[in-house]
Amino acid sequence: MPFDPIHDNFLNSNNSPIRSPERVERQKLKMDKENVDTAAFKAQTAIKENQPQTPQKNTKKKKEKLSALCKTPPSIIRNSERIFHRGISLGEGGFARCFEVTDSNDIRYAAKTVAKASIVQDKTRKKLLSEIQIHRDIFHKNIVEFIECFEDDINVYIILEMCSKGSLMDLMKVKKCILEQDAKYITIQLAAGIKYLHFHGIVHRDLKLGNVFFDEHYDLKIGDFGLAATAEYNKKYTVCGTPNYIAPEVLTGAKTTGHSFEVDIWAIGIMIFAMVYGKPPFQCKNVSDIYKKVKSIDYSFPENRNISRDCQILIRDILSLHPQMRPSIDDIFDYPWFTYDFPKTVSFNLTGAKDINGNVLEHKFLTEESWKCENLYNLLSNSDLKSVPIKKAILPSYCPEPDEYYEDNAALPRYFPIYQKYERKDLHPVINTKLVTDVTDLNRDQRIQDVSEQLDIPYNVLAVKNSQLPNPVSPIKVKQQPFEITLTQITTNKINYNLPLKILASECSLAVNGIMNAKKNAMHYLEKNAPLSYKQLVSSVGKHPIIVTKWVDYSNKHGFAYQLSTDDIGVIFSNASTILSLSDVPEFWYITSDDSEGWTATHYEESNKPDGLKKHLEIIAFFSKYMNENLNRVSKLKREKYHEDDVFLRRYSRFNEFAMFELSDGSFQFNFKDHNKYVLSQNGKVLTFVTANKQEGTHKLEDVLKHGGIPGQPTIDIGFVLDIIIQALQFKSRVQSTDSQ
């Protein structure tokens, strides 16, 4: 016999729960036996805290460079074990001068020389120490090798590998522009070095033509780690870099979102543009004009160079306003630009130009032996990243030290979601179609979306339609509109009555208000305070809601099936009814909706199931077996003692960018294509996240924003994610009648 129906006029929320009687009794017994040692749990998860440092205010530029304090060193430079003979000056920057030096074996090096008089300030001294600590612990064939460091009474000397063919800037001064095939060759080696740095938690932050060098074989070397920092767990908030290469989030997120590894990806795009067009895309006479263009992504592809559309596509995608929109390094090499005319040599013709030795540079070809790899993926393989032991990166002492989030998992390999192949954050912004044509094949996205999330198969999201691109002889004007995307709904379950739709619309609006209030409060907080430390954040750990851990869409035949973190199995059938089968008791709920009651949930024991529902339960059993055998559980979250109510899925909506789930406790879950998942509960006030590498947490949304983002996930721009979620909620809140679905 069924239990009495429960009529829910305001959605099955905390006010009108559905509860299995037998499950309630079992939970009471279980609670009596449990003795949760919360103190021990806190001790295990306690993380070392460092005092946050408020970002420094911009100071006026000094008239004299610090490098001017560095006088020419003596002809013989000594350390405790070696003697170096000083040679010619190789150049100078704002902080140091560089000289050629030769040791007793006639091996040539570059000596970066810093006057002690220029590092009397604590901040400057720590900056130099940070550069030394980071550079000495890294080794890669596309990074300038750190040899040693020592000092005398006047200077500090950093002895580095000699790059006799000068910098990429030197090359561009002679060539003005270079061939696309040469730009490909350079980009590959540049990306290989950057991937190594990012793998070890280091962001360069000052990539530019002048900081990339060539050795005698024209192998590329990344140098100058003066602004480098470790960003493994925390984003950085210091405004730094060179104006023409600076990323928009560095300018706009100094006090809020911060910046991380994506600034190096941005710089690669700037450098590709500069190599093939002869100047950076945002170049202006005034720095303020450069920044204005950068923040609005205002640039064009000049007509005077016949550059391929594939190259323009790559540049356009890299120079995206939002960091998460940019391709990862692995994604870059899936672009069509690298699928043809890929050189094994460079074809620099620098007749008349001189190298560091004063010799005239002739037409230069690389031999087969100098080609270090057979293909792109060998060069960028993860084995190459791990081939050289690296010490734990020393943190820049002038930046806040990141919280050691993975303290208990120190032996595990580091994971950076945005730099795993196929892990691109693929959300397409609204772009003026008169200015630039969308080149993403959304049909291909739809074809592979079904299996990607569910079977945990890597997802490659780029498919270029060359026919849709404008004629390459016409300049393409690119100007992105911030915080706007096109939401393309693929499918949703049809609700046959207006009252349930109005209830769902109301819940969506409440969640939007909660998110907006959290963003506003966090913004006001960060204007006057440093971001919350990790320890402060974990003090606000909340109760996680019940979430969807598996799902499969067979709505064209049987229905939409899902499994919850409680292990309960539900199916939304094509007739709009739902069955929720409970995992730990032989009971189930049969749920329908109408215009008089909203949702009606009727409870049954399996031993007394109605004949009319036997077929439905067979389908439930089929889906349960299928999901258990074929789908991975996306989270370790499970039923807790505070989960007294049974929860079911009211509505699902699948968009090109994500899947959206609206549950009966008023929570909203968003599963993005990058395998990151976000759940907003308690009217948008609490955020639960499950990242692609299975990191989980539940905190007040406002505290997450005050912290600067999701802890341990510097590549996730939570502000941008929330803007997309808000648009989705607003989109669904407008569905208030059966005619508007």
TrEMBL record:
ATP binds at K116. GO terms for cellular component: cellular bud neck; cytoplasm; kinetochore; mitotic spindle pole body; nucleus; spindle pole. Residues 547-629, 648-737 form the POLO box domain. Residues 1-32, 44-65 are annotated as: Disordered. InterPro entries: Kinase-like_dom_sf, POLO_box_1, POLO_box_2, POLO_box_dom, POLO_box_dom_sf, Prot_kinase_dom, Protein_kinase_ATP_BS, Ser/Thr_kinase_AS. It is an enzyme of class 2 (transferase). Gene3D superfamilies: Phosphorylase Kinase, domain 1 (3.30.200.20), POLO box domain (3.30.1120.30), Transferase(Phosphotransferase) domain 1 (1.10.510.10). Residues 20-32 have a biased composition (Basic and acidic residues). SMART domains: S_TKc. GO terms for molecular function: ATP binding; centromeric DNA binding; phosphoprotein binding; protein serine/threonine kinase activity. It catalyses: L-threonyl-[protein] + ATP = O-phospho-L-threonyl-[protein] + ADP + H(+). Residues 84-338 form the Protein kinase domain. Keywords: ATP-binding, Kinase, Nucleotide-binding, Repeat, Serine/threonine-protein kinase, Transferase. SUPFAM superfamilies: Polo-box domain, Protein kinase-like (PK-like). Its EC number is 2.7.11.21. GO terms for biological process: exit from mitosis; G2/M transition of mitotic cell cycle; meiotic spindle assembly; mitotic spindle organization; negative regulation of protein localization to nucleolus; positive regulation of mitotic spindle pole body separation; positive regulation of protein localization to cell division site involved in mitotic actomyosin contractile ring assembly; positive regulation of Rho protein signal transduction. Belongs to the protein kinase superfamily. Ser/Thr protein kinase family. CDC5/Polo subfamily. This is Serine/threonine-protein kinase.
